[in-house]
């Protein structure tokens, strides 16, 4: 008997400021006669975060910036197990909702009112988790440079080692995620492979890439802890400025920087080439770090 695979879906708690508090977005689906959080199934090979932002836009016509990973909902649908991944998202634009066959009404409500209105307990649990979050003041996509061949086979200076074909494919995939954050700044370590990793995102966003030595891995005579501290300090500086940014650094310093920011020493923060993290800050503290 073939194994039953999960139905994968994604969505979000889209929110906006309202009279000193926040309102969240719910959608009404006439097919089911229910009120729920906007969500939908993943396309083939689609990243869940990409799907979450896309589905929120398609169902509610709200463009939003993802911030914090929320609890996933698990239940059965059409006789199969279904997993829905959720993120909190700050609404930044609304194209003007038009009723359709999938969603015929959108409401913005206070969180308590939304919890009372939703038709399913799992939606209420996701909203309760959102309500417990501290307000997010800054979001940073922190990525490690993409694949750049082997250091041992590169004859030139290591800082000049470029991305290979695999690395360019990873950089283009990362651009899909970086674009979701809507960064106002792109910052890169000085190594060529780090700058190139952000090139596809820079082209899409029409932003310059700022070269920053604070993001570099240790050079001869430097300590890894010293460089990790410099990266952590730079991330906190970006957080203090508010808004959104994207940063490309290196594998020897990212784990140490995240240990310092989270206070979780010994946790696995190793980051594969072409991988990264979505960091959400509340004031001068890290609120959440979720793998991309």
What is shown here, in short?
The protein is of the alpha/beta class and 292 residues long.
Protein architecture, described:
One of its GO terms (molecular function) is bis(5'-nucleosyl)-tetraphosphatase (asymmetrical) activity. It holds the Pfam family NUDIX. One of its GO terms (biological process) is AMP biosynthetic process. InterPro entries: His_Pase_superF_clade-1 (IPR013078), His_PPase_superfam (IPR029033), NUDIX_hydrolase-like_dom_sf (IPR015797), NUDIX_hydrolase_CS (IPR020084), NUDIX_hydrolase_dom (IPR000086), Nudix_hydrolase_domain (IPR051325). The strands form two sheets. Strands 1, 2, 3, 4, 5, 6 and 7 form a seven-stranded mixed β-sheet that branches. Strands 10-9-11-8-12-13 form a six-stranded mixed β-sheet, with helices on both faces. The protein has helices spanning 48-60, 111-117, 121-131, 165-181, 192-205, 224-241, 254-262; strands at residues 7-18, 21-29, 34-36, 39-41, 62-77, 80-94, 105-110, 138-144, 185-188, 209-211, 243-249, 276-282, 285-291. The protein contains seven helices and 13 strands. The protein folds into two domains: 7-131, Nucleoside Triphosphate Pyrophosphohydrolase (Alpha-Beta Complex), CATH 3.90.79.10; 138-291, Phosphoglycerate mutase-like (Rossmann fold, 3-Layer(aba) Sandwich), CATH 3.40.50.1240.
């Amino acid at each position: 008997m073939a194994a039953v695979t999960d139905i994968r879906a994604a969505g979000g708690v889209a929110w906006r400021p309202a009279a000193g508090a926040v309102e969240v977005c719910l959608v009404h689906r006439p097919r089911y006669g229910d009120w729920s959080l906007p969500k939908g199934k993943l396309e083939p090979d689609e990243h869940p975060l990409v799907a979450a932002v896309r589905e929120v836009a398609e169902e509610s016509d709200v463009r939003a910036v993802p911030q914090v990973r929320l609890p996933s909902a698990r239940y059965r649908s059409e006789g199969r197990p279904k997993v829905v991944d959720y993120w909190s998202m700050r609404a930044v634009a609304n194209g003007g909702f038009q009723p359709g066959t999938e969603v015929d009404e959108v409401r913005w409500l206070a969180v308590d009112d939304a919890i009372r209105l939703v038709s399913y307990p799992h939606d209420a649990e996701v909203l309760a988790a959102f309500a417990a979050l501290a307000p997010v003041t800054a979001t940073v996509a922190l990525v490690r440079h993409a694949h750049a061949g082997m250091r041992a086979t590169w004859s030139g200076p290591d800082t000049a080692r470029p991305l290979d074909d695999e690395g360019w494919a990873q950089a283009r995939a990362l651009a899909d995620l970086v674009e979701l954050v809507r960064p106002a700044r792109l910052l890169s370590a000085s190594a060529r492979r780090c700058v190139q990793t952000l090139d596809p995102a820079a082209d899409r966003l029409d932003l310059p890439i700022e070269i920053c030595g604070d993001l570099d891995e240790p050079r001869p005579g430097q300590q890894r802890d010293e460089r990790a501290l410099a990266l952590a300090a730079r991330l906190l500086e970006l957080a203090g400025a508010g808004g959104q940014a994207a940063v490309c650094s290196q594998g020897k310093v990212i784990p140490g920087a995240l240990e310092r920011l989270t206070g979780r020493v010994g946790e696995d923060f190793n980051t594969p080439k072409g991988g990264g993290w979505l960091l959400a800050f509340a004031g001068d503290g890290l609120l959440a770090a979720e793998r991309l």
